[in-house]
Amino acid sequence: MSKDAIRWVVKDSSKPNVFWPSEEMKKKAWVSDEKIYEEAAKDPVAWWAKLAEDGIEWFKKWTETFVHEPPFYKWFVGGKLNICYNAVDRHVKTWRRNKAAILWEPEPLNEPHRVLTYYDLYREVNKFANVLKRLGVKKGDRVGIYLPMIPEVIIAMLACARIGAVHSVVFSAFSGQALKDRLLDAEAKVLVTADGYYRRGSIINLKSNADIGVEGTTVEKIVVVKRLGLNVNMVEGRDYWWHELMKDAEPYCEPEVLDSEDMHFILYTSGTTGKPKGIEHHVGGYAVQAYWTARLTFDLHDDDVFFCTADIGWITGHTYNCYGPLLNGATFVLYEGAPDYPAPDRWWQIVEKYGVTIFYTAPTAIRMLMKYGDEWVKKHDLSTLRLLGSVGEPINEEAWLWYFNVVGGGRCPIIDTWWQTETGGTLIHSLPGIGPFIPTVAGRPFPGTKFAVLTEDGKQASIGEVGYLVHLPPFAPGMLRTVYKDPERFKQQYFGVYGDTIYYTGDGAYIHDAMGNIRITGRVDDVMKVAGHRIANAEVENAIAQHTAVVECAVVPMPHDIKGEVPVAFVVLKPGYEPSNDLETEIKRIVDKLIGPIARPEKIFFVEDLPKTRSGKIMRRILRALLRNEPVGDVTTLMNPESVHRLKEIIWLKRS
Ligand code: WTA
Question: Is pTM beyond 0.70 here?
Fold first, then answer.
């Protein structure tokens, strides 16, 4: 590490493992005065109105800032804007025209990287917007995007935003079937995909998955990016090469004047049922929150190089690998491949190569890289780093300290950002110029937002008491507006627990101290976080139940060193079928096929019976406790209490 590396944090003189911003950080940071919290809280609606005005260029100002018709709410009503215009056009009129927007790093080391300036991006986005129009895409139409981490994914998203089409990005590691479910629900007209991409040195043939995905859907046209030059199946009249369409596309496309409450995108995420829900984000509120959280949460400045490792298929990718940095005119790294390919220092090599200043990743990745050992980090000069971020699940103390000491050299704050697909942007974390930075404690709600921890009966939990994390009005502008085509599910899922003015997050939490810093304890519903990916138990169960040998099954999470948690399945077989390794493999394969390898059960227990209530509900709570060797509690009210004893034996046998 170079000698002049700046210290961005200082130790608390009286408490171990508590850190505060240093004078250098306070001087640099956009905000460093504690008073911001109090000021924003005085009138949160007026506060957000001011932010909206300062951060975003509107074609027409809104007439009403916040409208609440519980459980629904709107922001900046009557305002007109275009996110693509704000993310690109705005900058090409300034000195940022030739500033690097995207530093694209391909996975193979022998392939050159690509730099797209704001002007490059402007040209490509305009052209692709015209391509979409030519393919018949109109304002409000849904466009599926099934692309790896290549610049075209950003271009496609922005082109949709430019013409007011609604993008629905599907994680490229999801299976063709998972893609199909999402395309069907969204009723997408066009799909943008690629021939293939590299992952850990292997070639993934994405187009063949896409072909499965579009079968029987409303998709009329497919645009295929030639990433690898694979020989793929192209259907005449349906499939077109990206580069061919772009060749003669018109260079300018007028940005559509959109309403603040027009739909911006849909992103599918797992709820408590087997059917993923389409989280619907709208233009104005999302733009304001993406701009301001990128800026204040990560203290993003013009001279920063931001590297967020999240895939674009997740909300973190949407907000911090696309909209947030671009709205700010920032430079960011987009990396195609795996963190440990060709060696476990790939990310550190990228940090060194581009002089990354802000690095944002997930605890699961930190734990994995920690296992490889410090020497991989130490090989590289990481002295440009000034801020580290974490997202996706609660970060354990050991990983926090390693990240802080080894990656950050003890110099950089860790911003532990709690948020969700639903919230659109970060919402609970310490601010870089204010602090404090405490392992496992996320921090305070973003200025102008209100959260509480409630007990079962709706009372405020006291300090240290674990309860349910809720968000109170006025809800942050970037919050979801509804579940696509399913407002009932929106009501029931988020406003069905404490009433229609209290947003239920699904997370457990407690207030850590008198300052109001919050510690998140994790999901309290039937949703798992597997290596940071959000997966519903029921989705995996539905997939397993497709196997002809399966009568019923239950999937529960089990703690895992690196991934945080992994799905484990308890499967009851039909008469005539015997448990075997082959059957286990087949079941895992069916999960790969219907969802994707991220949801594959780590273990499968073949059992005769599952513990059930008298009404026939499977008691997953008991299975969880058994897996963790925890007390199962009172089982006398079960329909089949004897099943618990048998399960204990089976789990014990498989362990030993
Ligand atoms: C969890 C990811 C603790 C939480 C942006 C939440 C976290 C779910 C944190 C949303 C964090 C996210 N600390 N838990 N810093 N960040 N979570 O929709 O359980 O993929 O409800 O959005 O991740 O996951 P999602």
Answer: yes
Q: Write out pLDDT tens, residues 259-310.
A: 999 999 999 998 877 788 999 999 999 999 999 999 999 999 999 999 999 9
Q: For the domain bounded by 531-655, which CATH number is listed? A: 3.30.300.30
CB 387 within 8 A of CB 364: no
Task: Name the residue of 280, 396, 419 to mutate for ligand 1: max ligand atoms within 8 A of Cβ.
Answer: 419
Atom of ligand 1 nearest to the CA of 422: 18
Please classify residue 133 by burial: count the beta carbons closer than 10 Å to its beta carbon, then call 0-12 exposed, 13-18 middle and 19+ buried. middle
Residues 6 or more apart in contact with residue 484 via CB below 8 angstroms: 185, 186, 266, 277, 278, 279, 280
3-state secondary structure of 265: strand
* Residue 417 near ligand 1, beta carbon < 6 Å: yes
Q: Which of 521, 534, 598 to mutate to test the pocket of ligand 1 (most atoms within 8 A of CB)?
A: 534
Q: Is 315 in the pocket of ligand 1 (CB under 6 A)?
A: yes
Instruction: Classify domain 119-253 at the CATH topology level.
Output: Rossmann fold (3.40.50)
Domain parsing of the chain, residue ranges:
119-253, 531-655
Atom of ligand 1 nearest to the CA of 316: 5
Between the CA of residue 519 and those of 129, 150, 290, 432, 612, what are the distances in Å? 43, 35, 23, 17, 33
Q: Which residues pair with 453 in a beta bridge?
A: 469
Q: Which residues contact 593 (CB under 8 A, 6 or more apart)?
A: 175, 177
Ligand 1, residues 171, 293, 418: which to mutate, most atoms within 8 A of Cβ?
A: 418
pLDDT per residue as tens digits for the range 203-262: 999 999 999 999 999 999 999 999 999 999 999 999 999 999 999 999 999 999 999 999
Rounded to the nearest angstrom, the distance between the alpha carbon of 174 and the centre of ligand 1 is: 20
Cβ–ligand 1 contact at 364 (below 6 Å): no
